[in-house]
Amino acid sequence: MEQSKKRKLSEITNPTSESHQTKRLQTKPVGGSRLQEITNCLQADKQDGETCPICLCDLDTDVVQLGTCKHLFHRDCLEAQLGESDWLKCCVCQCIYGLMKGDMPPGEMKWRLLPTLRCEGYPDIGVWDVFYNFWDGTLKGVKYKGTKRRAYLPDCEEGKKVLALLIKAFERRITFSVGTSVTTGQKNVVVWNIHHKTSLDGGPSNYGYPDEEYFKRVQEELAQRGVVIESEDEVSKTITNSVGHRYFLI
Ligand SMILES: [Zn+2]
Ligand SMILES: [Zn+2]
């Protein structure tokens, strides 16, 4: 029990917002609620002249401060937002608390190392070939069209790290969702939620390499959804072989 609680708290992430709150606040722990367990929030003093970002009323009673981003809310408002969910997104900074799960439809993800293939700008190392397959189906009563997608990552440290993160994102059903295609305007199709490199070359305008900012950008995108590397050996543990397969069914 204690172990699982620890794990949950360690999964709380905050990629971007260290400096939101500069004021010093008197806080004390909020006793053992699910909200506390998931967000690591603290009880705070009332805040004169400040409003709760959820209900827009004065923060004059039962104020709590979120554990990582330090934003302030009414406890009841956060409790209501959390509901029965296992995760919560701060509506001010989008910081994720707990384990975010998406609504990706059933599909499969495969990856393999192709030692002789090259991404432009990485002349000496092979390429991880990532393949996604989603078949047609029905989600929440709506028929949607599946898709097959291929993406590439160079076999460098950063590339492997991103692959491990993408595997995690897939398991949390975050990588794709059913929506409207930005490129074709087609409705009810399986679309990307996370940027992938679908070409080996041609640079950013061709969704390819080289792109100096890509690794940083995609890791930020993933971190915003709570997908981060949590231990040193996580990358090697996630990518155990030169081939891998995850199959996801609701
Ligand atoms: Zn409120
Ligand atoms: Zn926040």
UniProtKB/TrEMBL annotation:
GO molecular function per UniProt: ubiquitin protein ligase activity; zinc ion binding
Source domain of life: Eukaryota
Span of domain RING-type: 52-94
Region feature (Disordered): 1-30
Enzyme Commission numbers on file: 2.3.2.27
Key words of the record: Metal-binding, Transferase, Zinc, Zinc-finger
Major enzyme class: transferase
Pathway this chain belongs to: Protein modification; protein ubiquitination
Pfam families in alphabetical order: DTC (PF18102), zf-RING_UBOX (PF13445)
UniProt entry tagged with the keyword Endoplasmic reticulum: no
Catalytic activity reported: S-ubiquitinyl-[E2 ubiquitin-conjugating enzyme]-L-cysteine + [acceptor protein]-L-lysine = [E2 ubiquitin-conjugating enzyme]-L-cysteine + N(6)-ubiquitinyl-[acceptor protein]-L-lysine
Sequence similarity: Belongs to the Deltex family.
Protein name stated in the entry: RING-type E3 ubiquitin transferase
Natural source organism: Halteria grandinella
Record lineage: Eukaryota, Sar, Alveolata, Ciliophora, Intramacronucleata
